[in-house]
TrEMBL record:
GO molecular-function terms, A-Z: metal ion binding; metalloendopeptidase activity
Protein name: Mitochondrial inner membrane protease ATP23
Pfam families hit by this protein: Peptidase_M76 (PF09768)
UniProt keyword annotations, A-Z: Hydrolase, Membrane, Metal-binding, Metalloprotease, Mitochondrion, Mitochondrion inner membrane, Protease
Keyword Metal-binding: yes
Function: Has a dual role in the assembly of mitochondrial ATPase.
Superkingdom of origin organism: Eukaryota
GO biological process terms, semicolon-separated: mitochondrial protein processing; mitochondrial proton-transporting ATP synthase complex assembly
Protein's cellular compartments: Mitochondrion inner membrane
Native source organism of the sequence: Linnemannia hyalina
InterPro entries: Peptidase_M76_ATP23
Length: 251
């Protein structure tokens, strides 16, 4: 939506055929001249406020924007929020800072250009690539805490790749890292499980970790089926679930 513009007339100068000083009245242009600057500033502020309001209304309703323009604006908002939260979490989150410090100790420091916000499909909140680093799905977070857990989750994958030299085409290797990431990141906290609609009281954490790991492994291009993913997870579950490195215990 193109912004509206407003032009202003120059103050009128009184004309007279005599040297007399004109009498100023409330309706006289000359009388208004001293306050023209203040009025213009007020009008400019009101105009900006109106433009912000109309833009917000367009984003809420979609009126006045094409589908492409609407999505572009939404992407800008999502990215800005994701980047802001990322910077805050790097500074304040104990879990994020702990993992970043341990990545440095492991010889694989995580730089800012390796931790990027970007749009994803609706099924993901993040991802790790051994070649590119960590992607944070800017449109996939429902809260700052969710983004924090995702950042820690993906950092654990990066840590495993660096320390254990994983072969991601090997389903058991992939399953082990997914088990550790789900167990240690906070992804399987009770409140997260309740939000997903899972209400188990016995071995809730373990069951969540198994389920989340199997979903991720099933997405591996080398995985032929969900059944194969579950078998890979079950085969390595006990040893990988109990391996909390670099944490002393579950985060």
């Amino acid at each position: 939506m193109a912004p509206t513009t407003q032009t202003q007339d120059a103050p009128l100068q009184p004309t007279t055929t005599t040297p007399q000083t004109p009498q100023l009245t409330e309706s006289s242009p000359a009388a208004a001249a001293p306050t023209q600057g203040g009025a213009s500033e007020k009008e400019a502020k009101e105009q900006k406020a109106f433009e912000r309001w109309t833009k917000t209304l367009s984003l809420i309703t979609g009126i006045g924007l094409s589908k492409e323009e609407f999505q572009t604006e939404i992407n800008k908002i999502d990215r800005k929020q994701c980047e802001l939260r990322k910077e805050q979490l790097i500074k304040t989150s104990p879990g994020v800072r702990f993992m970043m410090n341990n990545l440095v100790k492991s010889g694989c420091p995580l730089t800012k250009n390796m931790l990027e916000c970007g749009p994803c499909d609706n099924t993901k909140s993040g991802g790790f690539s051994k070649d590119h680093g960590i992607l944070l799905c800017q449109n996939g977070f429902f809260s700052k805490k969710h983004q924090e857990h995702t950042m820690i989750h993906e950092m654990i994958h990066m840590y495993d790749h660096c320390v254990f030299n994983l072969d991601w085409d090997n389903l058991r290797h992939h399953a082990c890292s997914e088990i550790r990431a789900a167990a240690l990141s906070g992804d399987c906290n009770w409140t997260r499980e309740v939000r997903r609609g899972h209400y188990t009281f016995t071995k809730q954490h373990q069951e969540c970790v198994k389920r989340r790991a199997a979903i991720s492994v099933a997405g591996n291009p080398k995985c032929p089926s969900r059944d194969a993913a579950e078998k890979a997870v079950n085969a390595v579950f006990e040893s990988c679930y109990n391996d909390t490195r670099p944490f002393d215990e579950f985060y």
